[in-house]
Amino acid sequence: MSYVFAPPPLASAPVVGTTARFPVHRIYCVGSNYRAHAEEMGRTGREPPVFFMKPPDALVPVEAGATGEVLYPSLTHNFHHEVELVVAIGIGGRDIAADEAMRHVFGYGVGLDMTRRDLQAEMKKRSGPWCIGKGFDHAAPLGPITVAAQAGTLLEGQISLCVNGTQRQHSALGEMTWSVPEIIAHLSAAWALVPGDLIYTGTPAGVGAVERGDLIEAACTGLQPLRVRVS
Ligand code: MN
């Protein structure tokens, strides 16, 4: 088979302990998954899950020990960080039961759901889609993926984010409204999950703006940290 021009490269993420990479199919995101963040965004935290997607080529994969680069996007004056646990799917399926969900998980990474908050807010006001606020270029930084068996008791751990050395976000992962298996159950009822799917599982409270030159450091117990510079 030939193409009329060279196809774009497949998005992929590094995997801890191997040179083989995780090939990315889709990027799903959970809109609001910690009570305190839901409240800061004006909701109760008890609503059913909201899902949205980012295009796979919005991924900014960052190697272990490296500092990635995120370009400050166009059109916004309120560019926000959201630190999130990212679930990497290794076995696909549809209508996956929560108690079967963990065997579909390949591994986990620390990610940033970067957000043009002013544009998202404008779309919410107009009852429009969030694409312009969430699905722009460089919107999905991701650190190296740790395979599930090596992540241990990750889901009992903590997630946090610092900007220029000052902590802005911190939570126990146990504070999620919907657990990882529940998210997989809900998502796979709506879409067939495929190996290579990534799920950004929502951010805790403390989201806020970053400026050009800021250093964002995101961490999650048991996983490789993620560092990116806004430029
Ligand atoms: Mn988010």
What does this protein structure show overall?
The chain is globular and about 40 Å long. It has one domain: Fumarylacetoacetate hydrolase, domain 2, CATH 3.90.850. β1 and β2 form a beta hairpin. The termini are far apart. It has five helices and 18 strands. By secondary structure, the protein is of the alpha+beta class. The structure holds manganese (II) ion. Manganese (II) ion binds next to loops.
Q: Largest sheet, order of strands side by side?
A: 4-3-15-8-9-12
Sequence stretches where pLDDT stays below 50 over 5 or more residues: none
Classify the oligomer: single chain
**Average pLDDT number:** 95
Shape designation: globular
CATH architecture grouping = Alpha-Beta Complex
Q: Structural class of the helices, strands and pairings?
A: alpha+beta
- Bound ligand species: manganese (II) ion
N/C terminus separation:
39 Å
Which strand-content bin applies to the residues?
25-35%
Compile the SSE list and pairings.
Blueprint: E1 12-15, E2 18-23, E3 27-30, H1 35-40, E4 51-54, E5 59-61, E6 67-70, E7 79-81, E8 83-89, E9 105-112, E10 115-116, H2 117-125, H3 131-134, E11 140-142, E12 146-147, H4 148-151, E13 158-163, E14 166-172, H5 180-190, E15 198-200, E16 208-209, E17 215-220, E18 226-230
Bound molecules: manganese (II) ion.
